[in-house]
């Protein structure tokens, strides 16, 4: 697992780069605000229910949550399942909305 900052990610989104982004928050959190990507709450990852991510196993996978804690846990779990390039969004949506909303 590596880290990515909100600033780095925003630049990459704005440039139109193809990104593989995963939101691990709960559905009500995602409904309030999100930056896109697939949505699989952390609980499903903890239960190894990640079949829909199989095609992303070798891709750079950027994971986010509210503060960066759950996404960090998700990255570690995904790494243990064979994902090769996970990145945790440092500060999560709290940092993102502080900078960009």
Automatic annotation (TrEMBL):
<protein>
    <submittedName>
        <fullName>Rhodanese-like domain-containing protein</fullName>
    </submittedName>
</protein>
<dbReference type="InterPro" id="IPR001763">
    <property type="entry name" value="Rhodanese-like_dom"/>
</dbReference>
<feature type="domain" description="Rhodanese">
    <location>
        <begin position="15"/>
        <end position="98"/>
    </location>
</feature>
<dbReference type="InterPro" id="IPR050229">
    <property type="entry name" value="GlpE_sulfurtransferase"/>
</dbReference>
<dbReference type="InterPro" id="IPR036873">
    <property type="entry name" value="Rhodanese-like_dom_sf"/>
</dbReference>
<dbReference type="Pfam" id="PF00581">
    <property type="entry name" value="Rhodanese"/>
</dbReference>
């Amino acid at each position: 697992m590596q880290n990515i900052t909100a600033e780095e990610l925003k630049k990459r989104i704005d440039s139109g780069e193809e990104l593989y982004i995963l939101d691990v928050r709960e559905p009500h959190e995602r409904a309030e605000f999100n930056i896109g990507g697939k949505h699989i709450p952390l609980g499903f990852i903890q239960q190894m229910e990640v079949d829909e991510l199989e095609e992303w196993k070798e891709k750079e996978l950027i994971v986010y949550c509210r503060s960066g804690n759950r996404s960090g846990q998700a990255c570690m779990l995904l790494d243990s399942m064979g994902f090769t390039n996970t990145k945790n969004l440092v500060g999560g949506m709290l940092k993102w909305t502080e900078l960009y909303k």
